[in-house]
């Protein structure tokens, strides 16, 4: 019976309180109090803004609480553990909410008599946009595939319940992760780990991890913060040409450049040995000035996964007398140089 009264009278009072005489309103207040005080709070107390979503440490926000009930014993704000002065007979009260306390709570309260009051909470979400640190660890190389462990550290994110970490492989979203912690309001660190196998055919693959604070439907979304890494499969050096042995012909006294190109990841380091002598050359080509005799050169391309050797036979043909003569002088000079 009582409940029926409540539901009947609640509606007109919420719709058009200004059309009702103050005395009538007071009666209605009493009726509400008897059924459910909280429903009065939700319908009769309004906060502006309805909620606060702000960056921690920003300037304090002015909040305003209004009521349509003129006849009450006081209206006030309780922010954290402190209460504002109470306004009697006023239909609104404004107050400052500081943004420098992660645990801040704000409630607008209305007193109906000395001992009875109800309140409406103003939701306050303080956030800290995180930093994102990406790291890559090579786990293993198995044949043509390389296993990587990609890690994205989300540093100082608050509140962690609103952050989503998304992984993209070459711009395509492949995984998202969120964290099951609805209670921590202060900044925390979280990590998201992605294990991937990269094949040689894939060449260079770009991975991006993105952290975004998204407060839900009809609420703001902060710009995502991301980090990108490129990874590729590792493999031992291979020669670009099929043959592991080559023949090169040259005229005596000419300058020759031998070349040896290999592919490998990481890039190979080269080493040249001609007729048993280390040429102290570590690039893909070897310069031999004024060649004066057959030589056999071996080029070895090496990385941590292995090496490959190419052998080049250099055939030097003597030229005419004049050339022979000059090259002979050069030979002698070379020998003198060697002696020094
Ligand atoms: C205050 O109001 C409540 C609810 O209407 C009532 O139960 C209580 O007796 C009142 N107290 C005083 C002191 O009037
Ligand atoms: C609070 O709301 C009242 C009533 O709507 C308005 O008159 C007053 O200017 C507002 N105060 C602030 C600080 O917004
Ligand atoms: C409210 O809490 C702060 C610390 O959070 C404390 O310094 C202050 O004394 C408290 N005030 C009251 C009125 O309890
Ligand atoms: C916030 O509240 C949590 C638990 O509710 C407490 O552990 C933490 O110390 C509080 N932080 C501050 C700054 O008051
Ligand atoms: C998060 O990591 C940063 C940087 O490593 C550190 O300074 C901070 O104390 C960490 N925070 C927590 C809650 O562990
Ligand atoms: C990567 O390859 C290894 C070995 O073949 C396999 O055990 C693992 O499940 C693969 N991981 C992924 C993410 O495909
Ligand atoms: C190749 O040799 C040069 C000079 O001798 C040296 O500076 C360079 O670091 C070497 N490169 C590699 C990849 O070993
Ligand atoms: C090349 O690889 C073989 C094994 O395949 C190893 O025995 C040799 O020492 C390596 N040579 C160099 C120069 O690294
Ligand atoms: C150099 O090589 C050519 C061709 O293989 C050969 O005919 C010639 O006898 C060689 N010369 C010497 C000095 O061994």
TrEMBL record:
PROSITE patterns reported for this sequence: IG_LIKE (PS50835)
Secretion signal, residue range per the UniProt entry: 1-37
Entry keyword set: Signal
Gene Ontology terms describing biological process: cell adhesion
GO MF terms, alphabetically ordered: integrin binding
Keyword presence, Signal: yes
Superkingdom classification of source: Eukaryota
Gene3D superfamilies: Immunoglobulins
Domain Ig-like: start-end pairs: 130-232, 237-313
InterPro entries for the chain: ICAM_VCAM, Ig-like_dom, Ig-like_dom_sf, Ig-like_fold
Single GO cellular component term: plasma membrane
PANTHER family linked: INTERCELLULAR ADHESION MOLECULE (PTHR13771), INTERCELLULAR ADHESION MOLECULE 5 (PTHR13771:SF9)
Descriptive protein name: Ig-like domain-containing protein
Organism, as annotated: Haplochromis burtoni
């Amino acid at each position: 019976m009582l409940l029926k009264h409540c539901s009947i009278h609640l509606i007109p009072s919420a719709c058009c309180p200004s059309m009702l005489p103050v005395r009538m309103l007071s009666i209605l207040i009493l009726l509400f109090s008897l059924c459910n005080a909280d429903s009065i709070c939700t319908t009769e107390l309004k906060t502006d803004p309805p909620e606060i979503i702000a960056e921690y440490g920003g300037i304090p926000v002015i909040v305003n609480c209004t009521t349509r009930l003129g006849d009450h014993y006081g209206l006030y704000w309780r922010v954290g553990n402190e209460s504002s002065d109470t306004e009697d007979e006023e239909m609104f009260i404004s107050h400052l909410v500081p943004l420098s306390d992660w645990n801040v709570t704000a409630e607008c309260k209305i007193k109906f008599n000395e001992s009875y009051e109800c309140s409406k909470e103003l939701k306050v979400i303080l956030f800290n946009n995180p930093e994102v640190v990406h790291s890559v660890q090579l786990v293993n190389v198995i044949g043509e595939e390389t296993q990587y462990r990609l890690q994205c550290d989300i540093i100082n994110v608050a509140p962690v319940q609103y952050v989503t970490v998304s992984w993209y492989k070459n711009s395509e979203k492949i995984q998202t992760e969120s964290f099951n912690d609805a209670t921590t309001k202060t900044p925390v660190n979280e990590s998201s780990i992605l294990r991937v196998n990269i094949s040689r055919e894939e060449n260079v693959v770009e991975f991006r991890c993105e952290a975004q604070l998204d407060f839900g439907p009809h609420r703001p979304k902060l710009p995502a913060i991301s980090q990108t890494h490129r990874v590729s499969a590792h493999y031992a050096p291979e020669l670009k040409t099929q043959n592991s042995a080559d023949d090169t012909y040259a005229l005596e006294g000419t300058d020759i450049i031998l070349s040896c190109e290999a592919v490998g990841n990481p890039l190979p380091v080269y080493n040249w040995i001609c007729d048993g002598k280390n040429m102290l050359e570590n690039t893909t080509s070897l310069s031999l000035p004024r060649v004066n005799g057959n030589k056999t050169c071996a080029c070895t391309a090496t990385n941590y996964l292995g090496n490959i050797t190419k052998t080049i036979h250099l055939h030097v043909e003597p030229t005419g007398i004049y050339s022979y003569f000059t090259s002979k002088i050069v030979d002698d000079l070379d020998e003198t140089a060697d002696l020094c």
